[in-house]
UniProtKB/TrEMBL annotation, chain A:
TM segment ranges: 22-45, 57-81, 150-178, 190-212
Membrane topology, as annotated: Multi-pass membrane protein
ABC transmembrane type-1 domain ranges (all copies): 18-212
Xref: Pfam families: BPD_transp_1
A GO BP annotation: D-methionine transmembrane transport
Lineage: Bacteria, Bacillati, Bacillota, Bacilli, Bacillales
CC annotations in GO: plasma membrane
Protein known as: ABC transporter permease subunit
Length: 222, 288
């Protein structure tokens, strides 16, 4: 029955593409999480009244973040070709998409992290200081745990943007559902393939959103 | 937390204002602090909140759990160990705050408007806990507040601040009884209700024209003496109590009593002389 409705869809290939999309999303998400939290912390701590208040450092980090957020993702991939080649040794396949995916979404997530950290009650930070806590202790025992629901819902939003990016990366041969839909579907005029890929991507987005919401609710004890 | 513009701070013989950053940080572990808005971590349970200062001070896990257990009992939160702050009432949250502040056995406990966000009943129970801690642990408590009745109830000494300067200080009774500065008078009126009383006093002294109207100030332990009945028994005078208010403070009771004493001039003078010889302060109304 599936074969009648979607004559051009080869299940094995589709599975492989789905696997690649998951692979790219999860690895890039991990990298984005770490890099984004680093950027967000830097932005927050160096801001006015922060623990490491520094106008120059804050301005430099903010500039880098803003520049990378301003570059359209498709152009960022092209710009990063030399860097990717140096780092991964190839500019094709899922692994080659990772640097661009991480660099493209980490600044976005960094801003979300910064917003999340700003929501942490100043009084709680004051309390930790009054107990004689080091900055590192404040970061790991107060700032990050107290902003965790915001960090998780932020990474959920970022994950969904990332899934979109992986599809764009498909155009340069990164693999995954975007690639599959473009080369096997669009270019061969097999629109049933495009359709199935779309449905799968939507399902993946829903899965990520559901997991993200679930974890956020579990974490939030306010 | 804040850099003082002037003066110095000495705790237990240690000059705080001279310390470098690291020493200052470590010295903070010896100062407990509680806050108006409790400042608990919502992401941690009661137990974990109390445990935080111990984690910061690097206390090993087993010891930490023991100490937390002790503190929970001390502040009366047994059974609520695993609750999150959002599940607690204001009073319970402040108890967690107090337990947290006491965790590292501080040399002094700072209370920054600790009861200002609580209802009167809860305030009383928190103050009672603070008195117990003060007595049982022999811990110095510094309390910052604008609520005079809080000072009246639990403080021994008081300093009044205006525009960042201490303008008056001394024993609570002394300051409450003989406020010198304008701001102190304003504050003291709140709890003593002197203004209201003064109006009534004026009315009373003008309506009682025979005998003498006198105002008696009871300070400290003298309140326990049966002064009025002794005067009535020993001297041939009539005593009519017109108005009175006695308030309890940590240093004993403080109160004012307005009485009208009537009788023969001689007897009257002797009676007043007698009252003056006790530790009760006497103020004779001029128009009687």
């Amino acid at each position: 029955m599936l074969n009648e409705l979607f004559p051009n869809v080869k299940i094995a290939d589709l599975w492989e593409a789905t696997g690649e999309t998951f692979y790219m999303t999860l690895i890039a998400l991990t990298g984005t999480f770490v890099l984004g939290i680093l950027l967000g912390l830097l932005l927050y701590l160096t801001s006015k009244g922060g623990l490491w208040q520094s106008k120059s450092l804050n301005l430099s980090v903010a500039t880098v973040v803003n520049v990378f957020r301003a570059i359209p993702f498709i152009i960022l991939i092209l710009l990063l070709f030399p860097f990717t080649d140096f780092l991964v040794g190839t500019i094709r396949g899922p692994n080659a998409a990772l640097p661009a995916l991480i660099i493209g979404s980490a600044p976005f997530y960094g801003r979300l992290v910064e917003i999340g950290l700003r929501e942490v009650d100043k009084g709680v930070i004051e309390a930790a200081k009054s107990m004689g806590a080091k900055t590192r202790t404040i970061i790991f025992k107060v700032l990050l745990p107290e902003s965790m629901p915001a960090l998780v819902s932020g990474i959920t939003v970022t994950a969904i943007a990332l899934i979109g990016y992986t599809a764009v990366a498909g155009v340069i041969g990164a693999g995954g559902l975007g690639d599959f839909a473009y080369y096997y579907g669009f270019q061969r005029r097999a629109f049933d393939v495009v359709f199935v890929c779309t449905v799968l991507i939507v399902i993946i987005v829903f899965i990520f959103q559901f997991i993200g919401d679930f974890i956020t609710n579990k974490l939030d004890k306010r | 937390m804040e850099q003082p513009t002037d003066g110095n701070i000495t705790i237990d013989g240690q000059e705080i204002t001279d310390l470098n950053q690291k020493e200052l940080r470590l010295s903070r572990q010896e100062i407990g602090m509680i806050f108006q808005h409790f400042n608990l971590l919502w992401s941690r349970t009661v137990r974990d909140n109390i445990s935080l200062p111990l984690e910061i001070a690097g206390v090993p896990r087993v010891e930490r759990l023991e100490r937390v257990e002790e503190l929970i009992k001390l502040v009366g939160l047994s059974g609520r160990e695993d609750a999150y702050p959002s599940e607690l009432s204001g009073g319970q949250k402040q108890r967690v705050g107090i337990a947290r502040a006491l965790a590292n056995n501080p040399k002094v406990l700072l209370c920054d408007e600790a009861t200002s966000a609580l209802d009167p009943e809860t305030t009383d129970s928190i103050l009672k806990l603070l008195i117990d801690i003060n007595k049982e642990l022999g811990l110095t408590i510094i309390l910052i507040t604008h609520e005079m009745h809080v000072i009246r109830k639990i403080c021994h000494r008081v300093a009044v601040m205006e525009n960042g300067r201490v303008v008056e200080q001394g024993d609570v009774l002394d300051v409450f009884l003989h406020p010198k500065q304008q701001v102190t008078k304003k504050f003291v009126e709140q709890v003593m209700g002197d203004k209201e009383q003064d109006d009534a006093y004026e009315f009373l002294t003008t309506s009682y024209t025979t005998g003498k109207n006198i105002r008696l100030h009871f300070i400290g332990e003298t309140t326990n003496q049966a002064l009025i009945s002794r005067v009535a028994k020993e001297f041939d005078v009539e005593i009519n109590i017109l108005q009175g208010k006695i308030t309890q403070t940590q240093k004993g009771a403080y109160g004012t009593l307005v009485v009208n004493i009537d009788g023969e001039n001689n007897e009257l003078a002797r009676a007043i002389e007698f009252i003056k010889s006790t530790s009760v302060e006497v103020e004779v109304a001029p128009n009687a």
